[in-house]
Amino acid sequence: MSSGIDAYRQAARMKTDFRSQEANLFKQVTYSLIQGKTKKDGLDLVRAATDNRLLWMTVIQLLQDDQNQLPAPLRAQLISIGQAVIKETDDNITGNLDVDFLIDINTQIIEGLLGGGAPAADAGQSAAAAAAQKPANTSV
Question: Per-residue pLDDT tens for 84-103?
């Protein structure tokens, strides 16, 4: 994937509902993270992590919109998750990026999006718990 924006465009062209489109976008970014993790040079991982960061920045922006119809507690949880993902990426993109953490968070979001109404809230709570358990980076 060349960028997160390209992934959004591709998802928008799909003839599916918004939740499925969002899940597909998270799947694409997560797959890139998985692939990037296996490469030796690290460039693919940096690209994938940057796409993931862009995705989460966009998600946060959409969740902060007053027009967003998700329940406020779920929006707050998802914003917190997004902030943890962005912090992990910003603090560690050229060092000890915890790719498994990013993959786990995205996977839980995908499961929530594909599971229907209530599981999305459960996935948000599970991902929020995982983000809260992420130890703070103590390296410089």
Answer: 999 999 999 878 899 999 99
Q: Report the candidate in 26, 36, 11 with the shortest Cα–Cα distance to residue 78.
A: 26
- If you compute the radius of gyration of the chain from its CA atoms, what whole number of angstroms results? 14
Structure confidence by residue, pLDDT tens digits, 20-62 = 999 999 999 999 999 999 988 889 999 999 999 999 999 999 9
Supply the angle between the helices 18-38 and 99-115 in degrees, to the nearest 10.
Answer: 160
CA 4/CA 122 separation, integer angstroms? 26
